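--- STAGE predict ---
source: upstream dedup step, 1 unique chain passed
mode: sequence only
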Amino acid sequence: MLEAFLKALLPEEVAVESAGTYEGCDPAVLTNSPSVNAMREGYGLDISGHRSRWVNDVNLDRFDLVVCMSRAEASYIIAQNFPGLVMVANAKNGGVPNPWKMGPEVYAECAKVLESVAHEVVELWFD
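--- STAGE serialize ---
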């Protein structure tokens, strides 16, 4: 969801990609319906084509900033010797709550948090 918000806010030449720290990410699996619905209904953004990827399958050297959903994920990225900056989204509240396997209202709340995070990223790094 954060990827969609950032892509909507940033120029096309800024590389924005999404990846997770769960090694079992399966790129063949479509994004789940609650997140697709939360983004479409709440923001008019279509993320139906999003696929999960494991962060170790991404060349992080191409990026200056990695935004993580939790402190644990940030620690993982730092341990990979990422040369850029690492930011925990919604850090003041301990990161972004994981809505996985929760109801639509939890996905909608997560989207609301991530919209705010996207604006924060843009203000801090791109303005």
